[in-house]
Amino acid sequence: MTGKISPLFTFVAILIICIINIEANPAIATGYDPLEVCIENCAQCKKMLGAWFEGHLCAESCLEMKGKRIPECENFASIAPFINRL
């Protein structure tokens, strides 16, 4: 060898250093906030369901429950309280 470090060795060394320094907590990495997700889901359901969905009631529920019950637009049980019959 001529004393040069191979690019592959450098890549593997950097990769190992990165893996060692990463904590496996997605809440910290992504900034997950249940209240924010809850309100965003209310807005998404309002876009999908229009006048059938009471988005303001959904958002108020998010605030009261502090994001503990996150509505899912495709899960009728989770959005049933916010559906109106027009």
From TrEMBL:
Keywords: Disulfide bond, Hormone, Neuropeptide, Secreted, Signal. Pfam families: Eclosion. GO terms for biological process: ecdysis, chitin-based cuticle; neuropeptide signaling pathway. GO terms for molecular function: ecdysis-triggering hormone activity. It comes from the Eukaryota. It is found in: Secreted. One of its GO terms (cellular component) is extracellular region. Transmembrane segments: none annotated. Disulfide bonds join 38-62, 42-58, 45-73. Neuropeptide that triggers the performance of ecdysis behaviors at the end of a molt. It triggers adult behavior patterns: larval, pupal and adult ecdysis, and plasticization during the molt. Belongs to the insect eclosion hormone family. This is Eclosion hormone. It comes from Pieris brassicae (White butterfly).
